[in-house]
Design a protein that fits this description.
Elements: H1 2-15, E1 30-41, E2 44-52, H2 54-58, E3 69-76, H3 79-85, E4 93-95, E5 101-105, H4 106-111, H5 114-122, E6 131-135, H6 140-144, H7 154-168, H8 177-185, E7 192-200, E8 218-229, E9 232-237, H9 239-248, E10 255-260, E11 266-283, E12 286-302, H10 311-339, H11 347-354, H12 356-362, H13 366-372, E13 374-385, H14 393-398
Parallel strand pairs: 1-4, 1-5, 5-6, 6-7, 12-13
Antiparallel strand pairs: 1-2, 2-3, 7-8, 8-9, 10-11, 11-12
């Protein structure tokens, strides 16, 4: 019995060296990439990575006298080759496990990003919670070169800004790699990605002076939604159409809008709750589509003569708000059906869920069926709060 115990202990002792982390890497051996940009020129991929300065990782106070990130670039027939080629200029191997954003230049996005996504989805190293974006009207390299105020690391600015804008203003959508691929593979839907623009002098934005001025020479701004037909960019939604998209696909958590007053002026309303559903069915071989939107709002600002202590006035404001929201959603549907002739709202997916048998006869040519389909839009608005004032203090001054 003692011999068996000794044999077991010896076996356990031999296993101890195997319990280490097989892929452990030291920080001083890595160049931590927090953002990646992918462009294409002369039939070669041009990859840009934004690497955090080592001092920003090891010292909470950050580095002194130097910019917090460094840009490395390389070209290659494939993206994988371009990334490895960066070791010719970087003293450390690029480490992509902490990516926060991947930006595609608009020219590449119009050509197609499917091949670029293959590396991102195949490589085990990066997590899949980073956001995908399109650099509107410029290259990804230019967008990643801009230094940003408030957030020292521009990749963090991109990540946090798109989250904040999505939650508080709703003109953008935060899309991860898995979400994009899911919409790409869905026969009844097409992907969208948020756009990012360089406002101002992009070249000056690459200098440290850009974050030392109260008015930066260049800033990064979220710029609407990029519409894709599968993996190819086909156009852009403006801010109003982008909001309509988020309303329709149930992606509005909080935002602010305005409603016209009967005699001129506007009332600003804050959306505190929004619930949308998209329905689809087939009757007589033709799709019947509908969007239903239920919204709760608070009154935030009044720029006209309006007595909000009266129930009738509040009800009239609710009807006006319903009309405004219906126009916004219909504008997005119009862009999908007439301008881009592409279903990026998921109506086809709704038809598939409701009637899989009928969907089989429509799936191969769905976008053409969608183009001529009648879409019903129903909006219900309930105003919950009107603020601490019934009338504006200006009205009391006129009495």
């Amino acid at each position: 019995m003692t011999r068996k115990r000794l044999s077991l202990l010896a076996a356990l002792a031999l296993l101890l060296p195997l319990t280490g982390c097989w892929d452990r890497r030291e920080l001083n051996e890595l160049a931590i990439s927090v953002a990646m940009g992918i462009d294409k020129s002369d039939n070669l991929y041009e990859v840009t990575v934004q690497v955090v300065q080592p001092g920003e990782v090891t010292d909470k106070r950050g580095t002194s006298g130097q910019v917090p990130v460094t840009i490395y670039q390389a070209k290659g027939v494939t993206i994988f080759e371009a990334i490895r080629k960066m070791t010719t200029v970087s003293p450390r191997k690029i480490y992509a496990a902490h990516l926060r954003a991947v930006v595609f230049g608009e020219p590449l996005a119009r050509e197609g990003i499917g091949d670029a996504l293959d590396l991102l989805s195949r490589d085990y190293e990066p997590r899949t919670d980073f956001y995908l974006l399109v650099a509107k009207g410029t290259t990804a390299a230019r967008a990643l070169g801009v230094l940003t105020p408030l957030e020292k690391i521009p990749a963090n600015k991109i990540f946090e800004s798109i989250q904040t804008a999505e939650k508080a203003w709703a003109p953008v959508r935060a899309v991860t790699l898995d979400e994009f691929i899911g919409d790409y593979e869905n026969e009844g839907n097409n992907p969208v990605l948020s756009g990012i623009s360089v406002i101002g002098d992009g070249q000056a934005g690459e200098t440290k002076e850009n974050v030392e001025s109260v008015r930066p020479a260049a800033q990064l701004q979220n710029s609407g939604l990029a519409v894709f037909r599968k993996d190819r960019l086909i156009g852009w939604l403006d801010e109003r159409e982008s909001k309509g998209y988020n309303y329709a696909v149930n992606n509005v958590r909080d935002t602010v809008g305005h409603v016209p007053c009967p005699g001129g002026g506007h009332v600003a309303v804050e959306v505190t709750r929004s619930k949308a559903s998209i329905r689809g069915s087939v009757k007589g071989g033709r799709p019947r589509l509908a969007v239903e939107l239920n919204v709760e709002q608070n009154v935030g600002e009044v720029q006209c003569r309006m007595d909000l202590t009266q129930t009738k006035t509040v009800q009239d404001l609710e009807r006006r708000s319903e009309q405004t929201l219906e126009e916004i959603v219909r504008g997005t549907i119009e862009a999908a059906q007439r301008k881009y002739k592409t279903d990026f709202l998921g109506f086809g997916e709704a038809v598939h869920r409701r009637d899989p048998g009928a969907w089989k006869s429509l799936r191969s040519d769905w976008d053409k069926h969608f183009e001529t389909a009648v879409v019903d839009v129903k909006v219900n608005v309930k105003i919950k709060r009107t603020g601490t004032l019934g009338n504006s203090f200006k009205e009391k001054g006129r009495e």
